Amino acid sequence: MIQKFRSYGLAVSMILVLALFAGCKNEHHTIRQAEFSDSHAITITFASPVDADWAKNPANFAVCEKQDPDILADIASLILTPDGKKLTLKLAEPLNQNNHHTVTLKEILSDGKSGGTADVTVKKSYAGYLIQILIGAMIIQNFVFSKYLGLCVFFGTSRKKSTAVGMGITFTIVICFASLMSWFFYQFVLKPFHLDYLQIVVFIGLVSLTVQGVDTILRKVNPKLFKAFGVYLVLVIANCIVIAVPLMLANNEYNVWESLMLALGAGLGFLIALFLMSSVRERLEFADIPKSYQGLPIAFIVAGLFALSFMGFSGMTLF
To answer: In whole angstroms, how far apart are CA 140 and each of 130, 243, 245?
Structure first.
């Protein structure tokens, strides 16, 4: 048994090492940094001074959102520092800093020599970006109250806090493992061999494999919790959230850390939703509710009120 766990640990470690080095892109050798300096400007720091005439020509630059490369932003002015190492591009309209931007620098001239053309990605602080993905999936764009996904398991396991918390933790573990495996297969198997059209089938299979593993472990470790879940643990396989997350990370081309944050946020968001709902439903058992509203009708009303409350987070940005 110990030997098996060591083998599994080694396999997981190899996957993580491959994931860490996957998809890493180096910036152009003449550029050190590119960042948003304010809502209307992007500042580019060069490794060595660039020619002033080249830097003052707007035709040498193009700015666009990464997801909309055909829509170019209008450059109002170009400001180069006296040492020639920092160039600020002032834009006519405000930038949506939540989205990644691409700055194209044509034939960079430094000391009269061409450094070639560079495409630089401008985005927020990466740590802040990861936290934004986590908080966004957990609260701002909660999959239950904002996207109305996973309602079958949500209503089925939110009668009691103990079952709700256990289901939320189990679901978080399942979705994290399933999403990381889905990311790995998508990046190293489906994309290289142009099998993207099989992603739904593959993701469902990986989710099923993860659920079966959790089912077997839970049956041995905590039989009482396993019995409390009943059929709902198996329903995780068909849960919309656990399928939606791998599809989203594939569609957005997230790397391994971004995928983990999205999966963890979705799982914790589901846990929060279950805990809130179970807390209310336990109190509803002692409330004087009209007979026609007892059971699922009042549960749907409460869920609707929670959804209205979570709408208050819409459009919120942290970084």
So the answer is: 14, 20, 15
What distance, in Å, lies between the first and last C-alpha atoms of the chain? Answer: 46
Q: Note the pLDDT tens digit of each residue in 72-127.
A: 999 999 999 999 999 999 999 998 887 889 999 999 998 878 888 989 988 877 78
| 117 three-class SS | coil
Same domain, 155 and 285: yes
Residues 93 and 137 in one domain: no
The token pair at 217 is: 């472990």
Same domain, 148 and 108: no
Q: Work out how many domains the chain is built from and give that number.
A: 2
Single out the residue in 122, 144, 173 at which a domain terminates. Answer: 122
Q: What angle do CA 270, 168, 139 make, to 5 degrees?
A: 25
DSSP secondary structure letters along 248-297: HHHHTT--HHHHHHHHHHHHHHHHHHHHHHHHHHHHHTTS---GGGTTHH
Interatomic CA distance for residues 268 and 109, integer angstroms: 50
Separation CA 132–CA 122 (nearest Å): 16
Output the six-digit token pair for 303.
């869920």
- Identify the residue whose tokens are 């573990």: 173
- According to DSSP, the residues that pair with 77 across neighbouring strands are 90
Are residues 137 and 213 both part of a single domain?
Answer: yes
Q: Quote the domain boundaries for residue 287.
A: 126-313
